[in-house]
Amino acid sequence: MGLIFREHFNDDVEFGIWEITEDYDTLRGSLTLDENDISTVESFRNHQRKLEWLSVRTLLKTMLGRESKIVYGPERKPYLHNNLFNISISHSKNLTAILMSKKKRVGLDLEFMTTKILRIANKFLRPEELENIEKDQELYHLYLHWCAKEALYKICDKVDINFVTNLNIDSFKPKEEGLMIGAVNNSYMNEKFTLNYFTLKNYSIVWCYK
Questions:
Q1: Distances 188 to 56, 84, 126 between C-alpha atoms, Å
Q2: What is the pTM of this model?
Q3: Which tens digits make up the pLDDT trace of 133-172?
Q4: Closest C-alpha among 36, 113, 178, 208 to residue 121
Q5: What H or E segment, with its residue span, contains residue 152?
Q6: Is the dihedral of CA 29, 30, 34, 35 positive or negative?
Q7: H/E segment holding residue 18
């Protein structure tokens, strides 16, 4: 299937989503991999993890129009080796997504929605956030909160953040697409963010930039 979503925002932020329908050989054949890349992708025991790794780089190549190395910092935060873009990466089941910007911080998360989130909601939501969950859209509303907190976690460099004590999502009524407000309060910052969200093919997708 390949690229199924691509948008630009404010002339500096680009968002792309790739649907994985290709097999391993097709994805690998679309990339120029060095020995370290080959060693990395072949080290994954899970076949789906290999497809995810390859699809991220295929999507990045499509968005940039050229291949570029992804490197990771101490907190496993991704960067492009030439530092031309800030990037955020997410993948779940058959979708891979990248949000990138030259000037802005970025955070992105997407998740395939299943009922398993019902068992762990109190692990990442404050009591007041749980109280505001719409029961008729419970699954989707919970996943939007989870993805929002993941996006905030990523935009804030994954440092000194507990999902319950340091991240807060203002009350909102979930729609097919919309905005929500989130806040980060820790030893490094006290800051609010506007988060964009939508749903696609049973996925919850949330991203932000600032």
A1: 30, 25, 21
A2: 0.94
A3: 999 999 999 999 999 999 999 998 777 899 999 999 999 9
A4: 113
A5: helix 138-155
A6: negative
A7: strand 13-19
Q: Which residues of 41-59 are buried (b: 16+ CB within 10 A; e: fewer)?
A: beeeeeeeebbbbbbbbbb
Q: What is the pLDDT of residues 53-102, one digit of tens each?
A: 999 999 999 999 999 999 887 778 888 877 789 999 999 999 999 999 99
3-state secondary structure of 55: helix
Query: Which of 207, 183, 177, 210 minimizes the C-alpha distance to 195?
Result: 207
Q: In a 10 Å sphere around its CB, with 0-12 CB exposed, 13-18 middle and 19+ buried, how is residue 191 labelled?
A: middle
- 153 is written with which tokens? 């976690």
Taking the C-alpha atoms of residue 65 and residue 119, their distance in angstroms, rounded to an integer, is 42
Give the angle subtended at the CA of 8 by the CAs of 3 and 9, to the nearest 5°: 145
Q: Which residue bears the tokens 């790739």?
A: 18
CA–CA gap between residue 204 and residue 113 (Å, rounded): 7
In the chain, what are the domains? 2-104 (3.90.470.20), 109-209 (3.90.470.20)
* Residue 142 near residue 121 (C-beta atoms within 8 A): yes
Q: Which residues of 94-117 are buried (b: 16+ CB within 10 A; e: fewer)?
A: bbbbbbbbeebebbbbbbebeeeb
Average pLDDT, rounded, for the chain: 94
Say whether 163 sits in a helix, a strand or coil: coil
User: Is 145 within 8 Å of 183 (Cβ atoms)?
Assistant: no
